[in-house]
Structures are given as structure tokens and as C-alpha cells.
Specification:
globular; about 0% strand; mainly alpha
Length: about 180
């Protein structure tokens, strides 16, 4: 059975002359998605100042230049947006997993990028050869390790307010969703 999205007829808002047909835009659907757009923008702005220093602490790097990282993320997101792709996002847990697996050099990063491109070029068929249980176990164990790092290793080192700030993000999206559709 085909999904509703795959059965939908594609609609272009571009005209033959290179202009835009604003009448083809479903403004109601667009307005319903504005809260999600603001939430994604908000998280996109906040993730660098939060995740980059945390990654620096986990990696044992003291001289992290957040301004340089903000500029790099801004340039990469601008290029990504102009090419019609999605935003770039530093995923702390993936970075930690990569570093703990021995990815601590520029060559390792280049090899990861080449491997990622090869999987992307091969298409979704290659993903079927990766056992779901292995991926699930990696994510689960990494989650336990990160929870220990955030909750146990910081016990007694943080004030109560700082510790609340560490613990608060986990249950809060389930209790008070930021956008419709997050709470099920």
C-alpha cells in the first residue's frame, strides 16, 4: 500500500517564466507549520552554543572557539539552504560515538564523509544490510552512557538550579509539547 505522501500530485509554485505562482501555495497549511518552523529555527540557533562547549569538555579540548563554530554553521546552513537541502545540525551523541570509536583525526573525518557519501549514493537498499538490533543497541548503550555522564558524573559538582537544567529537557517535551504533534 502506498502512503498518502507518495500518492499526492506534486505541485510547483514556479511558473515557466521563472516567476512564482503564489496562488498555488496552500497558505493554511503553511500557517499551521509556522510554530514548527520557529521551533526548528530556535533549536538551530541554540544547538551550537550548547553542544560545541559540551563536546569540547567531553573531548578534553579547552580552547573551543564558539564564534568560529557559529560562523561555520551559518555558512554551511546558508549553502545547504541555497542548494535546497535541510539544515545542518551537530548531533552531540553521534560525535561522541565517533570520537570513542577512534575518530580523532582529520583523516577519520574525511573517511567518515566518504563513507556517508557512498551510502547516500548507493541508496536506501544498502541500509537493509545493517541489522536493526545492532543500531538499536548502539543508540541504547550510548544513551545510557550519556545519561550517566550528565546525571551521575555531575552530582555534587553542579548547583541545584544547574542540575535541574540538566534534568529538565528529558521529560519536558512529553509534558508540555512545543508544537502540535509532539505529544502522542
Amino acid at each position: 500500500m502506498r502512503g498518502a505522501l507518495s500518492m499526492a500530485k506534486p505541485v510547483s509554485i514556479l511558473t515557466r517564466g521563472g516567476g512564482t505562482d503564489f496562488g498555488a501555495i496552500d497558505w493554511t497549511a503553511l500557517m499551521k507549520n509556522v510554530p514548527a518552523m520557529f521551533a526548528l529555527t530556535f533549536f538551530g540557533i541554540l544547538h551550537v552554543p550548547i553542544n560545541v562547549p559540551a563536546l569540547g569538555v567531553s573531548a578534553g579540548i579547552d580552547n573551543v572557539d564558539v564564534n568560529r563554530e557559529l560562523i561555520a554553521h551559518g555558512v554551511s546552513n546558508a549553502l545547504s539552504g541555497f542548494s535546497g537541502s535541510i539544515q545542518n545540525y551537530l548531533v552531540y551523541s553521534n560525535s561522541i560515538l565517533f570520537m570513542r570509536a577512534g575518530g580523532d583525526s582529520r583523516l577519520a573525518g574525511i573517511m567518515l564523509a566518504a563513507g556517508t557519501f557512498a551510502v547516500m549514493a548507493a541508496g536506501p537498499a544498502v541500509v537493509g544490510y545493517i541489522p536493526v538490533m545492532v543500531v538499536g543497541a548502539l543508540i541504547f548503550l550510548l544513551g545510557i552512557e550519556l545519561m550517566k555522564e550528565a546525571l551521575v558524573d555531575t552530582w555534587g559538582k553542579l548547583s541545584r538550579l544547574e542540575y535541574f537544567t540538566v534534568c529538565h529537557p528529558t521529560p519536558s517535551p512529553r509534558i508540555t509539547p512545543l508544537t502540535d504533534g509532539w505529544k502522542q
